[in-house]
Design goal:
The chain is α/β, with parallel strands linked by helices. 26% of the residues lie in helices and 26% in strands. It contains eight helices and 18 strands. An eight-stranded mixed sheet has the order 1-18-16-17-10-2-3-9. Strands 6-7-5-12-13-14-11-15 form an eight-stranded mixed sheet. A two-stranded antiparallel sheet has the order 4-8.
Length: 361
């Protein structure tokens, strides 16, 4: 295991890059691809290296794709709401139609109305809706829901389409990607960005396991993300094209990336059926597990190893699609303009005696 020390001698490092710099990015998840696009838009020459043979398989691939800064405030820091709102605009500018602007509907079983009241107190940007308004928003929901919270300004997208679109945009700007490759290019580029998530050697970073299902239910129509508040397993259902629905997601303090457990599968299906009874006839198209990198405060960090000219971007926890664009822009502003982001500054980190990486086929 690598020996890594946090440097206290240089808390806000700077780097001087030449015009039209060569940037090498390790990792093609949400962190790597957002950052690649931000640098490519500013005329940097981009090469991405990705260990996997395709974009599939990352935690980013199994994400819900929710752009929900208000709902996330219930269990997250204030910065998630304050800065996360702007990420919706960023995604809108990537490609027209990528983002679905239909809001989020939060419901709770009648016996758990106290959870709805608590959620309301801890979040902003919502409207209390009654039974008739719930039926108007989502007619297929179980008729037992008497009240809900509607977050009209929130949005969602298919994360897989988002990742593919990001890569396409980077290529249009002259960037390239090498799959089945995780080779460092230190000494061959002006700056290397380490966006490898759980594969990167970082102190204090832990894994948070998330499990999901993909259902196909031709009889079900949902327009927006629906969140079910539940004391044991909070659930969200995110609609995708052609009556497909992503159901997720657990948050288990573990870096184990094995298959979904029987318990999680049963709880997902029971909860989904409770929200929309027609899910009882749904086909289970896919199950998936992703391990999300997180630091103790559950906020992402950017660290610069001056000796190796490597910038690490890591620790998105469950906020990759909400904060990925923000840190991507912050990284480009720091590297190209020497401008620090007040909320997500670049700090120093020294990678000591990290073994050389080799290309793995």
């Amino acid at each position: 295991m690598s020996n890594i020390n946090t440097s206290s001698g240089l808390s806000h490092p700077a780097i001087n890059l030449s015009p039209l710099p060569d940037i090498h990015i390790r990792g093609a998840g949400i962190a790597g691809l957002c950052t690649a696009l931000s640098f490519a838009r500013r005329d940097a020459k981009i090469l991405i290296s990705e260990l996997r043979p395709s974009l599939a398989g990352h935690a980013s691939w199994y994400a819900g794709g929710m752009l929900a800064p208000y709902c996330e405030r219930e269990s997250a820091e204030e910065v998630i709401e304050r800065r996360g709102v702007s990420s919706i605009d960023w995604w809108d500018k990537v490609e027209e139609g990528l983002v679905s602007h239909h809001g989020t509907l939060v419901v709770a079983p009648p016996r758990d109305q106290a959870d709805l009241t608590r959620f309301s107190r801890m979040t902003n940007g919502h409207k209390l809706v009654d039974e008739s308004e719930i039926r108007e928003l989502e007619p297929d929901l179980n008729s037992t829901f008497r009240q809900g919270l509607f977050y009209a300004s929130e949005a969602h997208m298919d994360p897989r389409i988002a990742l593919e679109t990001l890569l396409s945009k980077v290529k249009e700007l002259g960037g390239d990607i090498r799959f089945s490759c995780d080779q460092s290019m230190l000494g061959q580029c002006d700056l290397e960005l380490d966006c490898r998530g759980m594969s990167a050697p970082l102190p204090e970073r832990r894994g948070v396991r998330g499990e999901m299902l993909l259902l196909h239910a031709p009889e079900v129509s949902l327009t927006r993300t629906v969140r079910l508040l539940h004391p044991r397993i909070p659930l969200y259902i995110v609609p995708r094209d052609n009556h497909h629905f992503m159901v997720g997601a657990t948050m288990i303090e573990s870096k184990h990336d094995g298959a979904i457990t029987a318990r999680s599968m049963m709880e997902f299906l029971n909860a989904a059926y409770a929200v929309v009874p027609a899910f009882g006839e749904a086909e289970i198209i896919e199950t998936g597990v992703g391990v999300r990198p997180a630091f103790p405060d559950n906020l992402p960090k950017m660290h610069f190893d001056e000796k190796n000219r490597t910038l690490s971007i890591n620790g998105y926890y469950r906020h990759g699609y909400a904060l990925g664009p923000l840190l991507a822009e912050a990284a480009a502003n720091w590297a190209l303009d020497n401008v620090q982001d007040a909320d997500f500054p670049v700090t120093s980190l020294s990678y000591l005696s990290e073994p050389a990486e080799k290309v793995r086929q």
